[in-house]
Amino acid sequence: MGGSDGEIQQESTTLDSQTEFAIRIEESPVDSVSDGETQQESTTSDSEPEVAIDIEESWVDSVRSRVNASFVPKWRKESCTIFRVPANLRAVHPEAYEPTVVSIGPYHHGKVHLEPMEKHKRRMLGRLLSRRRDVDRRRHEDALRECLRKVKALEERARSCYSEVIDMESNDFVEMMVLDGCFLIGLLLLTKAMMMEVEDEDARVVWEGQKDEEEMHYNSSNLLTTVKHDLLKVENQMPFFVVEALFDLLVLQPDNGPSASISMYDLALTLLKKWNPSCDPYTATINHPKDEEGD
Fold first, then answer.
1. Which of 26, 48, 81, 133 is deepest in the core (most CB within 10 A)?
2. pLDDT (tens digit, 9 = 90+) per residue, 133-156?
3. Distance between CA 169 and CA 167 in Å, rounded?
4. What are phi and psi of 111, to 5 degrees?
5. pLDDT (mean) for 96-115
């Protein structure tokens, strides 16, 4: 028994010595390599000189400007109502989203194939200004000034309706809104006269003007059908409250004849009835924010 205990004790001592030696062997190379790598990295780091890089301030300002421009103010996001069509949908059928003859609003404004209708829009504005009973040449200019001033006051709200930042100068944007809004008003007045089969000179003179060949081209039924399709396209829109403000200035006046007794809502619903006979103008509604600021 005694011999057995001695052997066990000796064997245990031998195992402990072997284990300790093995651990020292395993740890030693790792520590050595680690120390060598650290020393090498330190030497390399010390040997690399720092290079001074100058950044031009104008470049920094340019980058900062583009970054800031990518942010959309909170008020704009909340009132955005007119959107771009997603690229994947547009790619399937681009013609379904591109206006053919007339642009309304900024998304397609200035495209070459739509330019001919811009001249007709200016004629339309002139006729709306002229139809006011009290307008002579001087007051004609005053009426135009009123329109520009009114839409200028609504510019920020109008821009906020679009999902993209509109890259247009203020005066150009306002002029576009006035021309496009008056074009829509003239179209609405003509539609009312045609539907009700009444001789409303105020409405007819706005659209028809002089009976020259060019004017007859714009009044042709085929072209009007194309215009109708363009006005129903998602990207070809403008804020209703802008058109309504122009209507109030140019049409809804006590001395402006029979059309002065109708509202912009009635005209819009009349147009919907003309284009879609299944639409009941007495139950249809137009949802748009009222002018809370009293413009």
1. 81
2. 555 556 667 889 999 999 999 999
3. 7
4. -70, 140
5. 95
Q: C-alpha distances in angstroms, 272 versus 2, 196, 214, 246?
A: 114, 14, 27, 20
pTM attached to this predicted model: 0.66
Around Cβ 150, how many Cβ atoms within 10 Å? 18
Q: How far is the first Cα of the chain from the last one, in angstroms, to the nearest whole number?
A: 112
Quote the tokens at residue 184: 């829509």
- More confident position, 11 or 51: 51
pLDDT (tens digit, 9 = 90+) per residue, 227-262? 989 999 999 999 999 999 999 998 876 555 555 567
Q: Of all helices (H) and strands (E), which one includes residue 115?
A: helix 115-130
Closest CA to 107 of 68, 160, 165: 165
Contact between 109 and 176 under an 8 Å Cβ cutoff? The reply is: yes
CA distances from 266 to 15, 102, 125, 163, 244 (A): 103, 23, 21, 28, 11
Residue 109 has φ and ψ, to the nearest 5°, of -65, 135
Of the pLDDT bands very low, low, confident and very high (cuts 50, 70, 90), residue 129 is confident
The vertex-9 CA angle with 7 and 13, nearest 5°, equals: 115
For residue 82, the cross-strand partners are 162
Cα dihedral across residues 195, 186, 147, 107: positive or negative: positive
